[in-house]
Amino acid sequence: MNAPATAGMLRALPAEYRGRLMRSAREVSFPQGTRLFEEGGRADRFWIIRTGSVDLDMCVPGRRAAVIETLRHNELVGWSWLYAPHAWHLGAEATSPVRAYEFDAVAIRLMCQDDPALGVSVAEWVGGVLAHRLRATRTRLLDLYAPYGSGSRQL
Question: Which part of the chain is the Cyclic nucleotide-binding domain (predicted)?
Answer without folding.
Answer: 9-78
